[in-house]
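Purpose: get a first structural picture of the assembly so the mutagenesis plan has something to point at.
Setup: two entries, given in the order below. No constraints added.
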Amino acid sequence: MEIFKKTLDPVVAMVIVGVLDIFLFLVVGAWTVGGGETMITGLVAKLVIGDSLNRIPFWDYVFKPTLYYWKMYISLGMLFGGFLGAVLSKEFYWRVPRHLNEWVMITIGGLLMGIGIRLAFICNVSTFFAITPQINLGGYLAVSGILAGAWVGSLIYKKVLES
Amino acid sequence: MHHNSLTQILAAFFFATIVGFLMQRSRFCNTAALRDAMLFKNYRNTKAMLALMIITTIGFTAFMTVGGGYPIEFEVGINQFVGLFLFGIGMVLAGACTVSTWVKSGEGNVGAMWALLFTFVGMFLFSLFWSATYWPPAPTTMAGVPNLKGLQLGIANAATLQAQTGIPAIVFGLIQASVLGGIFYGIVRRERAAARKREETKASMNIDS
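Result (structure tokens, whole complex):
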């Protein structure tokens, strides 16, 4: 089939996603990722340290670990969809970063993403595709923040690439 | 488990599977949408991001006009600026955002899995900080009214705008969509001008040779 050979135009892909996202907005709420990732963090932490997790107020008041939180299944769906697309178009293979500085940048980047999401209470998806389209003033603050951050990040990225 | 959450879970999983598939096939990445525009003047992903924003802006505000859908009850606060600033640096360093980490992990990308792992670690570290300071206020304690001590300024979205001004939410949506559409059009014009310039240089080089 054509779709498994050629790269799809991202504008076409996102128009389809947009229409589906409006349906999701009517059923449960707009597409978002950060909340689900937090719940996964909580469930993993509960597996590792057990009931002592309840002594940390965040996991008692804000995110009580539960398997019935719909946002978590957004993450699992994207993982499955990505896997499906890669396997069907024979693009699945293990890719491992080769250089040490890549590992360091990914580690720092991951940490900053996790901290940033929880500080803001939203991720990039909810910023661009949920609260800003709902004309939430917080969305404009978040968009300004991510543009400034991406610019600073790009300067660092360029420096590392050049060295 | 009650029926309601099963419907929610299935809807979320089904939606996200299609999203993951389309992302994998189109190589769309939110990080690239910002980074490539800033570093390389490449707008392939930026245009896709804007298209999605235009569609959801019109769709969400249309349903919010009649009180439909589930808008996020979200308080405005300076923590959104600071949090997403940190996130913006992080996503460029990691080379992936919250979406592409999952999609690329599905493709077998170990770097993306590593980024996810440390996103979880970052979230856990922040949960300790939050537990010590109780800031920013949790969504469950958010009352929707300004809490200046916690630097939370209350909820302000298309629905509250409609309630306060009497102007339908869709009007604000259409204004925002036309601004985004204007940016989209500006990018297309810029790309066309660049393509024309390339053609001209090519043509003049042919004459020289």
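Chain A has a mean pLDDT of 94.
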